[in-house]
């Protein structure tokens, strides 16, 4: 997951630099439900905003994934019976922390990748005479949300549950 996280972070930097080199002076910054821009801004505003959002997300997920292996056990949020099982031995605790860290890198990777797609679309459509978001973007956003919800259900019902055989 760490490699996927850094690959999506690298993709963000590439798309941001392409925006730096190619965005026009006037850029659509916000879009209504129909996909048409309802707020415009400067090239600088677009680059600063996307840089802060994308860079902030990369930093946030990296810091959390690095901190989690050293986080106090009290802050690890699992159902009580499962938490007792995971914290019963050093090996289990190490595995729990590794999984949590990997999961943060994975969620970070797909979240940053979503930002990459949004930034790339902005760069491309900013050159159109009448920019509008493509309809397929809603499939990507829906897929992202469905994936996060699905992962959350899987993680809480399978990944972090006490093994049936007691381990």
TrEMBL record:
The keyword Translocase does not apply. Coiled coil: none annotated. Keywords: Membrane, Transmembrane, Transmembrane helix. The chain crosses the membrane at residues 46-65, 104-124, 136-154. The keyword Cytoplasm does not apply. It comes from the Bacteria. Residues 13-49 form the DUF1648 domain. This is DUF1648 domain-containing protein. It comes from Nocardioides dubius. The lineage of its organism: Bacteria, Bacillati, Actinomycetota, Actinomycetes, Propionibacteriales.
């Amino acid at each position: 997951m760490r490699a996927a996280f850094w690959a999506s972070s690298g993709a963000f930097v590439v798309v941001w630099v392409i925006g730096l080199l190619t965005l026009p002076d006037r850029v659509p910054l916000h879009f209504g439900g129909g996909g048409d821009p309802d707020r415009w801004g400067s090239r600088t505003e677009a680059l600063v905003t996307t840089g802060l959002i994308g860079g902030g997300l990369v930093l946030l997920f990296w810091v959390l994934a690095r901190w989690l292996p050293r986080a106090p056990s009290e802050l690890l949020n699992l159902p009580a019976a499962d938490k007792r099982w995971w914290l019963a031995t050093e090996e289990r605790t190490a595995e729990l922390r590794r999984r949590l860290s990997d999961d943060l890198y994975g969620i970070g990777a797909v979240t940053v990748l979503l930002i990459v797609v949004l930034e790339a679309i902005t760069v491309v459509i900013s050159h159109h005479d009448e920019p509008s978001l493509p309809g397929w973007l809603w499939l990507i956003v829906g897929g992202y949300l469905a994936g996060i919800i699905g992962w959350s259900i899987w993680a809480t019902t399978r990944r972090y549950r006490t093994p049936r055989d007691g381990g």
